[in-house]
Structure to design on (272 residues):
């Protein structure tokens, strides 16, 4: 007898809901709400919106529209551990710089651990982070953007790679990974090189010469892993004379990212 998919569907949905509830035990919804309220009072540009995953609760994001001259590409920004959508290091400068150069940005709140959880539990937030990324992609698709790019910083970059490799996301046209942090203490862990081997979209892997040791020490492994899958559209750049926070070299970081977006994502004709 054939499988009755109508009977299986409630089971699949039930399992997904159970997984979402179990995962939710590790992150702090109340803190996310407080962050959203504070950002709504503090940000000078952008709008706080709430996005709802297929399974799970709504989460905040900052939506930046580039106005009448906006390109047909939008960038989803993913902050690092314990951050927020307008994090002052890398994320906020990028959000404002992209908007100034006619790129629309959507900076989403990534899961934040509850105060009583171990940092290793950030590994348990990966599935929720992927659900949020999917919600952000759906939101931008409804806005009819032609191209969508993920841009992650630190753990946000590792999360983006996990999400892209874990599930086929044809709506994502590129990845900017800044100082990829896949800490060894995560439970479950992230096999960064194994995940990179699965990706076949344009990737910019950018890091600092004085970055955290785990970022610098794995640079060659990341490059080799990406090239095992062809690596035609993989670019690795290093910014000299700065650290994980790009102190003193923020303008160069921003410019290199925009140059890459112009070169790899946009054709030029329909984005003017």
């Amino acid at each position: 007898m054939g499988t009755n998919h109508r009977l299986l569907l409630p089971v699949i949905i039930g399992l997904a809901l159970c997984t979402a509830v179990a995962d939710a035990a590790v992150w702090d919804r109340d803190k996310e709400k407080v962050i959203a309220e504070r950002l709504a009072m503090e940000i000078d540009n952008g709008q706080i919106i709430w996005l709802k995953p297929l399974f799970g609760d709504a989460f905040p994001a900052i939506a930046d529209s580039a106005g009448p001259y906006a390109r047909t590409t939008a960038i989803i920004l993913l902050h690092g551990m314990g951050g927020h959508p307008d994090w002052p290091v890398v994320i906020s400068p990028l959000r404002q710089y992209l908007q100034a150069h006619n790129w629309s940005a959507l900076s989403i709140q990534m899961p934040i651990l509850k105060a009583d959880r171990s940092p290793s539990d950030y590994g348990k937030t990966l599935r929720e982070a992927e659900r949020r990324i999917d919600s952000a992609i759906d939101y931008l698709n409804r806005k009819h953007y032609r191209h969508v790019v993920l841009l992650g910083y630190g753990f946000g970059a590792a999360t983006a790679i996990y999400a892209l490799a874990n599930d086929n996301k044809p709506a994502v046209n590129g990845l900017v990974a800044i100082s990829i942090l896949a800490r060894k203490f995560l439970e479950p862990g992230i096999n960064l090189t194994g995940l990179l081997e699965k990706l076949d979209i344009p990737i910019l892997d950018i890091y600092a010469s004085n970055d955290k040791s785990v970022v610098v020490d794995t640079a060659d492994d990341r490059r080799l892993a990406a090239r095992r899958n062809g690596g035609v559209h993989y670019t690795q750049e290093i910014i000299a004379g700065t650290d994980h926070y790009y102190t003193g070299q923020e303008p160069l970081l921003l410019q290199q990212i925009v140059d890459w977006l112009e070169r790899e994502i946009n054709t030029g004709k329909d984005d003017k």
User: Anything to note?
Assistant: The chain has one domain: 5-271. Residues 5-271 form a domain with the Rossmann fold fold (CATH 3.40.50.1820). The two ends are 57 Å apart (CA to CA). The beta strands are 47-51, 59-64, 73-78, 104-108, 147-153, 174-178, 203-210, 234-243.
